[in-house]
Amino acid sequence: MTSIQLKLLWVLAALVAVTVAGLAWTAERSLRARELERIESALLARSELVREQVGATPLLPAYTPELDALARRAAAAARARVTLVAADGSVVADSDVPPDAVPRVENHAGRPEIEAALAGRVGVSSRRSATVLRELLYLAVPMPAGGATRLAMDLAEVDAAVADLRRKLAVASAVALAGALLLALAISSYVVRPLRMILGTLQQMTDGNLEARAPAHSRDELGRIGRALNAMADQLRQRLAQITAEKDRLDAVLESMVDGVLVLDTQGRVSLANPRARELLELYGPVEGRTLLEVVRNPQIDQSLRAAAEATAPVVSEVEMTAPGHAPRTLLLHAVSFPADGARMGTVAVFHDLTDLRRLENVRRDFVANASHELQTPLTAIRGFAETLLASPIEPPEARSQLDVILRNAERLAELIRDMLELSRIESRRAPLQPSELDLERLTRIVLRDMEPRMKERALDVALHDEEAAPAWADRRAVEQVLTNLLDNAAKYTDPGGSVRVEITRREGAVRVSVGDTGIGIPSEHLGRIFERFYRVDKARSRALGGTGLGLAIVKHLVQAMGGEIFVESEPGRGTIFHFTLPSDEPRST
């Protein structure tokens, strides 16, 4: 028997018991009230008979023998106890008390029924008699000559009738309770049977069988529950199919990715690592549920992921992976916490292998440096012989112009080689920068003074604006080279009569230097590529002015090597402004 059936049986049994008890109590009270009313009516009728028999006999102690005889005859006729009470409440005769004991009977003036009768009313009361020691119903009526006549009837019959009723009610209650329990058992079995079926269906769904269906034929609440359960199973099956398909697609994407993907939960434990991440980070065995430092012993990766977990913006860094017996790897780490809105659920990191790219860049730099060095020797010879021939008488005259061409292009080629070597030196960090506190305003004035002849030759108006003394933490030679290149470009591409302006301003934690001109400007489609090697906006003009296409690339690498940034604003026909920033203080070591 299920707990639901037991509950139903207990509830129905309690309901039947309470109902039967209430009915029994009501019936008992009703029976007692009805019997008492019947006895009271009989006593009232019999009291009239007793009052006629007593007649005008005074109710005084002096007439006790005569009154005792009257009381006994009246009691026999009325089949009730008869008590005659004087006007002062003393008992003068009692059918149940011997005459010689009547004087010793307690005064009845305080009895409720006697008190009412002496006041001229009919008095009724029921209690246990202190004289005869039985439960009696009393009814007293006033007498014409004064005093009162009281009739009393034993309530043993009433108690017997009530007891008989109780016995009958007990038997009826037992029968009703047994019947109610049988009916409750049948009803509960009928009600619980579909519940058992629904419970079985739920158990099957819990075990993964979403094809199971609950009974839903009835139109009652159980039928509605079954239909709702079946609808829920259909939705769960559809959503589970969607989730499974999405998981399969995600697994396929992660399996085929050339980048490593690592996901951490909010506690910093690994929750997912795709095969490429295992390969790049050299992870072996199960890693899910373990902390990052347990599986990846690289402090730089741990610091980057901790920073990404606390920040809203992505964290990007390059990581060097070294392990005994393995070639070093260079990885680009891109980490960000998710989701973008709401409570954070974890951090995802993507690792891109830059090893081959960095190796190719090194090969390219080495090639450029080696080729440039190798080209310097024959180029020096060409320039030397060309200059020697130009210094000697040459016949025919047109040979001199040809030698001028050779010498001019040799010088241009020498300048290109110098720029290539400089760029290679900067990229390879073979000549490390030596930053120190630098007075930018003073250094800028020195560079402008050195370039003053060039600016006057181009008839350019030059101005320097410094908001305040703005020291920077940078390499003096590198900053001088950056300013020289930017000012040289401004002079090249600004028509005579134009102006060049240098502005130094302080920013939070940095100093910004702006070099602007009123030259030809740069079309917007070229702004994204002007810092590339050998990229020229106007190739014909650049060649005519002697540009190599490497100046801005050198500027960008120098600024970035000093911890700054560079960007450009330009509008064709209105001029160009190059902005670059430098740290204002020495970076703090961590």
Plain-language structure description:
This protein is an alpha+beta fold. The protein folds into 4 domains: 3-155, PAS domain (Beta-Lactamase); 259-353, 2-Layer Sandwich (Beta-Lactamase), CATH 3.30.450; 359-428, Helix Hairpins; 436-583, Histidine kinase-like ATPase, C-terminal domain (Heat Shock Protein 90, 2-Layer Sandwich), CATH 3.30.565.10. 51% of the residues lie in helices and 20% in strands. It contains 15 helices and 17 strands. The strands form 4 sheets. The chain has a 5-stranded antiparallel β-sheet, with helices on both faces. It has a 5-stranded antiparallel β-sheet with strand order 7-6-10-9-8, sandwiched between helices. Strands 12-14-15-17-16 form a 5-stranded mixed β-sheet. A hairpin with a 2-residue loop joins strand 8 (315-323) and strand 9 (326-338). The longest helix has 52 residues, at 3-54. The chain is rod-shaped, with a radius of gyration of 60 Å. The two termini are 72 Å apart. The mean pLDDT is 80.
State the separation between the terminal residues, measured CA to CA.
72 Å
Which percent range describes the beta-strand content? 15-25%
Summed up, the domain count is 4
Mean pLDDT: 80
User: What would the principal axes of the Cα set say about the shape?
Assistant: rod-shaped
The CATH superfamily name of the largest domain is PAS domain
* Low-confidence runs of at least 5 consecutive residues: none
Count of strand segments: 17
The whole-angstrom Rg is 60 Å
Largest sheet: 5 strands, antiparallel
